[in-house]
Write a structure and sequence with these properties.
By secondary structure, this protein is of the alpha+beta class. The chain has four domains: about 45 residues; about 180 residues, Ribosomal Protein L30, Chain: A (2-Layer Sandwich); about 350 residues, DD-peptidase/beta-lactamase superfamily (Beta-lactamase, 3-Layer(aba) Sandwich); about 80 residues, Trypsin Inhibitor V, Chain A (2-Layer Sandwich), CATH 3.30.10. Helices cover about 35% and strands about 25% of the residues. The strands form nine sheets. Strands 2, 3, 4, 5, 10, 21 and 22 form a seven-stranded mixed β-sheet that branches. A six-stranded antiparallel β-sheet has the order 13-12-11-26-25-24, with helices on both faces. It has a three-stranded antiparallel β-sheet with strand order 1-8-9. Helix 13 crosses helix 18. The protein is elongated and about 130 Å long.
């Protein structure tokens, strides 16, 4: 029995000792957590209940050259209610007046909002949704309402702000305006001007402390941010929205007519290099067109006959030929090795001068000129082209500029055919904007300026940075050569034999060059051949103000594919309308231009607008720019809302014009 008692006692001591050791271990751990690891666990607890959130700043506005908005940040506000922080007295006193104010502001019944507020109070909801996506004026009205005017703690007001980027021009210039996006890993995607000028537009982020509440939701702590965000600067681009609208609709109409795959138009100011319009339209599977890719800057392709200008300048500079040099185009076919160079005119042009060879766009004449003139020293030819800078990128801030291709003798792909092929725009590659930069240099008496999309960066009325003209090459060739090719470019349009004569107008002058490039030409199946139609030039021909290039890819061959037919009319339409709506001409000249070319002016409205109308015409469905020109020529003040084509006119067709002073046009 005694043995048994001693055994039990021994066990009790063991158990008691273990308990003491366990208690000691617990005490040690508590002390360790409290003192040694206290800061670590406190920080962990804080991160689970409180967290610092980033506040995105308002992105700066992107403007056109006249201050019209191309892209802007619009703040949207969501209002929530913390039903726990409000005292019983304040809630009972203000719940109905608050519901009445919300109902008056947003159109729902007072009982609807009372139900939301009372239910939130009953369920102790700290994050009840009241209303979302408010603009600034509605947000300010909510802040002044009963109860909410007491702020975050006493009034339970929770405000969430988000910024949305909007484009007032809609789909016009959408790709050129572009965007800047950042993913969860911090990687940026930059497109167009928004991406190029992001460093100015994006601003500096702020910080806001939030507390975790029920259901994984986060509520802002206090009324103030820890670090206030700094809004981005405003950027003023070179884009002219009137010219942009003209270019967009001229291109769209031609793409639809020829059911082409895609196309681009660029309009640039000759002296400064300011890009006034840049439109890029691609076809969807449904046959509609939208700003799909930035073809003007990013798509490098064989330019075809528009490259003949580069070759003519090179040959004149190297004294290979003169404009009066006669070359035999034979019967429009010339064989070099096993390859036939062909002209589009059956039977050829016979013996013609080099100036006429350019005007009629003879492939045979140019292939002979470059091949015969440089075959003993092909390096001299390529060096001349490089001296003019056609092998270089323009160095634009916009991401994705296509690289020009200019092979050197000995490079992979160079062959005995290369000189002849390069003579009429094959085995070389350039983007439309790179080609336009060369034509612009000729219009600018030989000075090549860098195309420019940015004019100024501002913070309110303060100029942060200003961007001026940048010269890439002060003289791509001699003044003598410039004058010669300027006259020849003018002849392309004015002379009856010129490939661009179909564009001729006696009322305003143009100069330029057509281009028709064959693609898929390696295929033996001619039915698979596709074409790129282009026209590059400038206007007016004698004192150039603007240069312009139009490139249209893969038009329906059954409708047409030559540059003069497909791209030429777009160039002419742009030149005509820009010429008529800008200070290039006198008032009398404008009238002449608008009357001209009746078939290209929306069913003769321009011509009719000059007649003494007695009644209001119907302008519905017309391009906004055309409708404005017509109505203003009738002496009517025009107010325009929106962009695109006319959807509604405030004065109906047939109204006596004597009683009309102003009309409002709604565009879509």
């Amino acid at each position: 029995m005694a043995v048994t008692d001693k055994s039990i006692l021994k066990r009790l001591y063991i158990v008691a000792g273990c308990m003491v050791l366990f208690a000691g271990a617990v005490l040690f751990k508590l002390v360790s957590i409290q003192i040694v690891d206290g800061e670590k666990y406190q920080a962990l607890a804080d991160t689970r209940t409180e967290r610092m959130f980033t506040i995105e700043p308002n992105r700066g506005n992107l403007y056109s050259d006249d201050g019209s908005l191309l892209a802007t940040s619009v703040s949207k506000y969501t209002i929530r209610f913390d039903a726990v922080t409000v005292s019983n007295e304040d809630f009972k006193e203000n719940v109905k007046p608050l519901a009445d104010a919300l109902a008056k502001q947003f159109g729902k019944t007072s009982s609807h909002y009372q139900q939301i507020l009372r239910k939130a109070r009953e369920n102790k909801n700290r994050y009840a949704l009241i209303v979302r996506n408010l603009d600034y004026s509605d947000y300010m009205a909510v802040k002044k309402m009963p109860l909410f005017n007491k702020g975050a703690y006493k009034g339970g007001l929770i405000i969430e702000q988000k910024t949305k980027r909007e484009h007032p021009l809609g789909k016009i210039a959408e790709r050129s305006v572009g965007y800047e996006r950042v993913d969860e890993n911090g990687y940026y995607t930059r497109v167009g001007m928004e991406g190029a000028f992001g460093e100015y537009l994006r601003g500096i982020s702020g910080k806001r402390l939030k507390q975790k509440i029920a259901k994984g939701q986060w509520k802002p702590i206090g009324n103030d941010n820890i670090v206030e965000p700094k809004d981005g600067y405003d950027v003023y681009s070179t884009i002219d929205i009137n010219i942009q609208d003209i270019a967009h609709h001229a291109l769209l109409g031609q793409l639809e007519k020829y059911q082409a795959d895609h196309g681009t138009v660029i309009v640039m100011e000759v002296k400064t290099g300011e890009v006034k319009a840049i439109s890029n339209l691609g076809q969807t599977s449904e046959g509609k067109y939208y700003e799909r890719l930035n073809y003007a800057i990013g798509e490098s392709h064989e330019p075809g006959s528009t490259f003949k200008l580069v070759n003519l300048v090179a040959a004149l500079e190297d004294k290979i030929i003169d404009t009066s040099t006669v070359i035999d185009t034979e019967k429009g076919r010339w064989k070099i090795y096993r390859h036939w160079v062909k002209d589009t005119k059956r039977g050829g042009h016979g013996k013609i001068t080099m100036s006429k060879a350019f005007e009629v766009s003879s492939n045979v004449a140019f292939a002979k000129m470059i091949n015969d003139g440089y075959k003993s020293d092909p390096e001299k030819y390529v060096n001349r082209l490089m001296a003019m800078g056609v092998h270089k990128e323009l160095g634009l801030p916009v991401v994705g500029e296509g690289k020009p291709v200019l092979r050197y003798p000995g490079d992979k792909g160079w062959s005995g055919l290369s000189l002849a092929q390069m003579a009429y725009g094959y085995e070389v590659s350039m983007t439309p904007l790179q080609t336009l930069a060369f034509y612009n240099a000729i219009a600018n008496d030989g000075e090549m300026v860098k195309p420019r999309l940015l004019k100024e960066v501002k913070e309110w009325d303060k100029t942060i940075e200003k961007f001026d003209k940048k010269v890439l090459n002060p003289a791509i060739c001699s003044k003598e050569t410039v004058k010669k090719v300027q006259q020849i470019l003018k002849n392309v349009v004015e002379k009856e034999h010129g490939t661009g004569h179909g564009m001729y107008s006696k009322n305003f002058s143009m100069a330029g060059k057509t281009g028709t490039t064959q693609t898929n030409y390696v295929s033996k199946d001619r039915s698979k051949y596709e074409y790129i139609s282009s026209f590059a030039g400038y206007f007016p021909a004698d004192e150039p103000k603007y240069s312009c290039i139009v490139v249209i890819h893969k038009p329906d061959k059954s409708v047409g594919y030559y540059g003069a037919d497909v791209s030429g009319p777009v160039f002419k339409s742009v030149a005509q309308k820009v010429y008529a709506t800008s200070p290039l001409t006198s008032e009398v000249d404008v009238k002449d231009v608008l009357v001209a070319d009746n078939e290209d002016s929306h069913n003769g409205y321009y011509k009719k607008a000059q007649q003494k109308y007695a009644e209001m015409p119907n302008v519905k469905g017309m391009c906004g720019m055309d409708a404005v020109a017509i109505l203003e020529n009738l002496g009517i003040e025009v107010e325009v809302k929106g962009n695109g084509k006319v959807k509604r006119q405030s004065i109906s067709k047939g109204t006596d014009l004597k009683s009309v002073k102003k009309i409002v046009l709604e565009l879509i």
